[in-house]
Structures are given as structure tokens and as C-alpha cells.
Design a protein that fits this description.
single chain; 259 residues; alpha/beta; Rossmann fold; 7-stranded parallel beta sheet; binds NADP nicotinamide-adenine-dinucleotide phosphate
Length: 259
């Protein structure tokens, strides 16, 4: 067997269908590009049509298969509509990546019920509902990969963690609950844990060069994360090679969490 064939057997996503929420920006865009280039057909879910269209256009030009689903994951009806429209694009997914997320950062004492509800809806309830929609069918088919994107704040308080950290802690527990339920049926459920990555999500923090440099210094690698740092880990978790990895939190953070 050639090296190419061996690697393809382990990691190729040819013929698989993926749904990536938040796949039009930042870390999700990096993951969308990686899954699509590894062979998956990717339905990308987010609100902003222009960013979705640009993502699909660029991937199609690169010879990949991608489709745009503009939907708001902050409401349960929005999540349900997104799921059905994603299925309409390429069929039932083999891979679900929950990357859409928001981080509202009011100081804890000023956090409103609306901040709490919106954060939980997008960061935790949407991944739960999408898991309920797709997970049991993956289990019936005997193969599935669910990947959630969490945060350092699932593990420690950090820069006004507020409701965000709570939602990400819940998401890590959701991965374990899903792993417990479906791993026997070939469906693995894991989380990727970023460190600090310069994306629109943390535009305010990114505008402060001293803070950005201090955060880079806290890593072991010596720099902050980039969207393409998640490519290898995402393809691995989505691939057949990761069939015995489940219920895990995999830190892709340049050593930030252990420094
Ligand atoms: N950047 C970091 O340092 C960092 C660190 C730890 C964890 N994370 C996590 O990584 C994930 C991606 O973050 P990022 O930094 O890449 O952020 P980003 O560039 O702001 O991307 C967020 C994505 O989620 C989508 N989204 C947000 N609200 C949505 C909604 N209500 N309905 C549908 N889609 C929605 C956005 O598209 P629209 O706005 O068009 O809807 C966008 O595609 C998040 O879960 C975040 O918590 C990021």
C-alpha cells in the first residue's frame, strides 16, 4: 500500500457529509476548509449571507463541495430549520461540528437575563438540539463524529467568563453525555479547546497589542492561535482514524493551558 493510500485510509473524508456551524468565520472557517479539502461535502451554517457565500465560493473554486445555510441558531426554530436545510444540501451528516459561538462580556454583576439566555441558546442549546437531530441517526447508520468547540473557560475563569464560561463547561459535559450514549454505535463525541485565537469574536481584546503579546507569551509555542491551527485536529477527530477517541477534550492552544 502506498503512503498516500495508507494516509487516505486513515484520514480521508471522501464521501462523508459534514455540517459546520459558524463555519463562515474564524476557527469554524479554518475547520470548514480543512474538512472540505479532506474530501467532505460541507454545509456551512451562520447568519450572515455574504460571509457564507464567500466561503462557498472560495471552496468551490478550490474544487471542494460546500453549501451555505443562513440561519439564526439563537432560537430553537432557527436551529431546526438550519438542520433541515443542511440536510437538503448534501443529505444526513456523518460529521457535526458545533463551532458557532458568542461571547458577551459584561462584568458578572451586570450580566442580564437576556445575555444569559442568548449565550446559552447559541453556545449550548443549539449544539444539544443538533446532536438530538443528528446523533441517533448517525448511531443507526453505525458511524458519526460530533465535535464541539469549547474554550479555556470551560476549565478556568478568564476575562469576564460570565455566562460564556458556563455555556462552554456545559458543552464539554454534553460531549461526554453524547459519547456515553452513542460511542458503542460508532459515533464519537469530542471537544476541541482553543487558546487565544485572533478572530472577530475577540476583536476588542485583539485591539490591545500589549494584551495580545502577553497572551502569546503565556503559550509554550510563543504565539497566539490561528484558524488553520485547528485543521489537523479537526480532520483527525472527523476521520475513521479517531474511532477509539471519544468523550475527550483536546487542547489546541500552543500549551497555554499547561503553562
Ligand atoms: N477566538 C478565540 O480565541 C476562541 C477561544 C476559545 C473558544 N473559541 C470558540 O470558537 C468558536 C468560534 O469562534 P471564533 O473566534 O472563530 O468566532 P467568530 O470568528 O466570531 O465566528 C463565529 C461564527 O459563529 C457564527 N454565529 C454566531 N452567532 C450565530 C447565530 N446566532 N446563529 C448562527 N451562527 C452564528 C458567526 O456567523 P454570523 O455572525 O454570520 O452568524 C461565525 O460564523 C466559538 O464557539 C468560540 O466560543 C474561540
Amino acid at each position: 500500500m502506498s503512503t498516500h493510500d495508507y494516509l487516505a485510509e486513515l484520514f480521508s473524508l471522501d464521501g462523508l457529509v459534514a455540517v459546520v456551524t459558524g463555519g463562515s468565520s474564524g476557527i469554524g472557517r479554518g475547520i470548514t476548509d480543512a474538512l472540505a479539502r479532506a474530501g467532505a461535502s460541507v454545509a456551512v451554517v451562520a447568519r450572515t449571507r455574504s460571509a457564507l457565500d464567500a466561503t462557498v465560493r472560495e471552496l468551490t473554486a478550490a474544487g471542494c463541495r460546500a453549501a451555505a445555510v443562513d440561519a439564526d441558531l439563537a432560537t430553537r426554530d432557527g436551529v431546526r430549520a438550519a438542520a433541515e436545510r443542511a440536510v437538503a444540501a448534501f443529505g444526513e451528516p456523518d460529521i457535526l461540528v458545533n463551532c458557532a459561538g458568542i461571547n458577551l462580556r459584561p462584568p458578572m454583576g451586570e450580566l442580564t437575563e437576556q445575555d444569559w439566555d442568548t449565550t446559552m441558546a447559541v453556545n449550548l442549546t443549539a449544539p444539544y438540539l443538533l446532536g438530538q437531530r443528528f446523533g441517533p441517526r448517525m448511531a443507526e447508520r453505525g458511524f458519526g463524529r460530533i465535535i464541539h468547540i469549547t474554550s479555556q473557560q470551560a476549565h478556568r475563569a478568564f476575562v469576564d467568563s460570565g455566562a460564556y464560561g458556563v455555556s462552554k463547561g456545559g458543552l464539554e459535559s454534553l460531549a461526554r453525555s453524547q459519547a456515553e450514549a452513542w460511542s458503542r454505535h460508532g459515533v464519537t463525541c469530542n471537544t476541541l479547546v482553543p487558546g487565544f485565537v485572533l478572530t472577530p469574536l475577540n476583536a476588542r481584546l485583539s485591539a490591545d497589542p500589549e494584551r495580545v503579546a502577553a497572551l502569546a507569551e503565556r503559550t509554550m509555542v510563543g504565539r497566539n492561535g490561528r484558524a488553520d491551527d485547528f485543521a489537523g485536529a479537526a480532520v483527525f477527530l472527523a476521520s475513521r482514524a479517531a474511532g477509539y477517541v471519544t468523550g475527550q477534550s483536546i487542547f489546541v492552544d500552543g500549551g497555554f493551558s499547561v503553562h
